[in-house]
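Hi everyone, sorry if this is the wrong subforum. Our group has a chain we'd like a structural model of before ordering constructs, and none of us has done structure prediction before. Sequence below.
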Amino acid sequence: MTQRTEWTEPGAFQVAPGVHRIPLPLPSDGLRAVNVYAVEGDDGLVLVDGGWALEESRRRLEAALKEIGYGLGDITRFLVTHVHRDHYTQAVAVRREFGTRVSLGIGERATLELLTRPRRREDSPQLAQLLTCGARPLVERLKAAWREGGHDVLEWEMPDDWIDGRTELPLGGRDLLAVPTPGHTRGHLVFADLDGGLMFAGDHVLPHITPSIGFESAPGASPLGAYLDSLRIVRELPDLRLLPAHGPVTDSVHARVDALLAHHDERLDACAAAATAGSGTAYETARALSWTRRERHFDDLDLFNQMLATTETQAHLLVLVTQGRLRSHANGDGATVYEA
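Answer:
Right subforum, don't worry. Here is the predicted structure as tokens:
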């Protein structure tokens, strides 16, 4: 077990008085686990994020809560940072059984309206996005990988309430500040415990990796532009202890935000250089770049991560157009081409 992976070990780990980190499994996922945080208050137990609605995840959550003297029925509320299934779907599953209140950022409404609407997989807006990126080979591979059948809406439901804008959330002896941080998703929130010196950061600020940008059912106009603005908003808050959704707890949000801003500056330069050298679409530009800390070639990524790489490259190219460093136009196939 390396230092980078020991955070995935099961259990309930106290990170502050009345706050426990509970890692839950993500089978067949490179991230390995997602941290949910149990916050004790005078009004009951609140969980920040819920995990993925999987049998093993539920067993791990029940066992971890038992360690600190609670059960699933003691959870009074889920504060969910964003709508991705490894954060949201288990909260919905627990609500079906115990009536637990589920809260989510209002920016996720458009995505959930799509996810809860019966439709065919072939009608996915993400397929249209990939075609705009010039990634027809990925679209064809994705269609070939899908099994026959429609879109499963059973695990997707609306929350009990929407958190709209920067909001104070009193939790019975502890106050959290919900701060909208769009970018990873349109409705992403972080929850800051300013008095306790903690930030429940979801996927907005991660200690070892950069969150994916731009791959969602209802993306905003400039996901990376929104993400960079959100990083700066978090940087303006007091420096807090980083409680991420993936990875170990670290001491400084500010230090990691500075590293993420520097990384995206470098990535913007790399995308501009690739586009200027003749890589026209987002898909072609992504293929010209290296990926992950290991500097892997695009072709060495699996299909899902190739899709993430393509849409993230698109997000960088959109920012470069906004900055005036590139211009764009549509080609005859409906894909967007970027050039100096």
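For your construct planning: The mean pLDDT is 92. The longest strand covers residues 33-41.
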